[in-house]
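Reopening: PadR family transcriptional regulator still failing for me.
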Amino acid sequence: MNLERIKKQLKKGTLEIIILRLISKKEMYGYEIIQQLDKASNGFYNLKEGSLYPVLYRLEDSNYIESYMVIEDGKRKITRKYYKITDKGISQIHDYLKEWQNFVFITNKILDIEGDYNE
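Support: Ran it again with your exact input. Result attached.
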């Protein structure tokens, strides 16, 4: 069994809920999401823009998030696309979290995990 393949699939399977949860806490633009995710996961979720934006587009197409443009002043004006959660997105987070808790519980039960990994 290839451990790297398993890690990749687990990351892919949890990315939507994690990104949705981050956006629910604070409206952010794409690169900021990448930075926050990297920081919060101690580098485990080290995303590239090519992995992030398809997820953001899916979340937006599902009406879980909305985007808006902001022109930020500074030495040069930068236009950034910010993402914010919708009411439907908040509801989806609750559904995702219930399903995640059930998934973890059942998986741990099947794997018979009791905190001892040294067998």
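DSSP finds four helices and three strands in the chain. If you still see a failure, please send the error message rather than a screenshot.
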